[in-house]
Design goal:
This protein is mostly helical and 107 residues long. The chain has 4 helices and no strands. The chain has helices spanning 17-35, 43-58, 64-78, 85-96.
């Protein structure tokens, strides 16, 4: 797993390593969710948001607020399916590589 935002790909590719990390994490969670035998009420939401995340990373560096929104929807829809917890954490860690979204000044 990448630990620093300053790391560069070793393969000579110009791809942002954060994007590669997120793509891998999303792909793994999608595969695990697809093979998970239990049905749960919001499974479709999780599948749709994972597809949206996959599309975002296919287009380059996604917007951090949109990443965080998708992550929140996925986490909420997967809920307490403990079998998916490790892969969900991988997606969260990959989203965290993009840093915090800018905060609005509210008074």
């Amino acid at each position: 797993m990448l630990r620093s935002l300053g790391q560069r790909p070793v393969t000579g590719s110009d791809e942002d390593p954060r994007v590669a990390e997120l793509r891998t994490a999303v792909s793994r969670l999608r595969r695990e969710l697809a093979t998970h035998p239990a049905e749960f009420p919001d499974r479709g939401i999780a599948e749709d948001e994972l597809a949206a995340l996959a599309a975002m990373v296919a287009g380059g560096v996604p917007e951090t607020p949109r990443l965080r929104r998708s992550l929140l929807l996925i986490a909420g829809s997967i809920g307490s399916v403990s079998a998916l917890a490790t892969r969900l954490a991988d997606v969260r860690n990959a989203v965290d590589l993009f840093g915090e979204p800018p905060r609005e000044n509210r008074r």
